[in-house]
Design brief:
Number of helices: 3
Helix content: 25-40%
Order of helices and strands: HEEHHEEEEEEE
Number of strands: 9
Strand content: 35-45%
Largest sheet: 6 strands, mixed
Mean pLDDT: 88
Strand order of the largest sheet: 4-5-2-1-7-8
Low-confidence stretches: 1-20
Number of domains: 1
């Protein structure tokens, strides 16, 4: 009887741990260009546990989205995004970012990050390098949907593929 109970517990432990892991390594961002403010408004969705690991790498210590002080998490997140979600103007200069906030949906293991990128010369011809979490997972695939008014396009960023230029299809 004890052996059967132990076997069932081991099986359940394996089942639960496999169920908690996520074998897909993706992030998704939506970026809307606001022509009135000349800013790209970005919403980025990442797996919370992966992002904690990335921030831990950056900090050189364990980081918890729930326990580490909010100001520290926000500072680490800003530093991470500046070097892992890179936007350049069509002229080739680095576009400044402004952090606006985050939202943790712990039950779904999702972290939503919100920030803006200044693009005074417009979105057309700007270049994006979306490297988020690619240093953690060799199979990380990032996707970015860019909108400007009625125009829209989706850019994908497989590992080690470099930046993409925003060029909307001609109508």
């Amino acid at each position: 009887m004890f052996r059967r109970a132990l076997t069932v517990l081991c099986f359940l432990g394996i089942f639960v741990s496999v169920g908690l892991a996520h074998p897909i390594h993706t992030s998704f961002a939506e970026a809307d260009y606001n022509s009135a403010t000349k800013k790209l408004e970005v919403t980025l969705r990442v797996f919370a546990d992966d992002f904690e690991a990335a921030l831990g790498q950056l900090a050189g210590a364990k980081v918890s989205l729930e326990k580490t002080p909010r100001a520290e998490i926000d500072a680490l997140t800003r530093a991470y995004l500046v070097s892992h979600f890179i936007v350049k103007t069509r002229e080739g200069s680095l576009a400044p970012q402004r952090w606006t906030g985050r939202e943790l949906k712990d039950a779904d293991n999702e972290l939503w990050l919100y920030f803006e990128v200044e693009l005074p010369s417009g979105i057309d011809g700007s270049r994006v390098d979306f490297l988020v979490l690619q240093s953690l997972h060799a199979d990380q695939l990032n996707s970015l949907r860019v909108r400007a008014g009625s125009r829209s396009l989706t850019l994908t960023f497989p590992p080690a593929q470099g930046e993409r230029t925003v060029r909307f299809p001609r109508s």
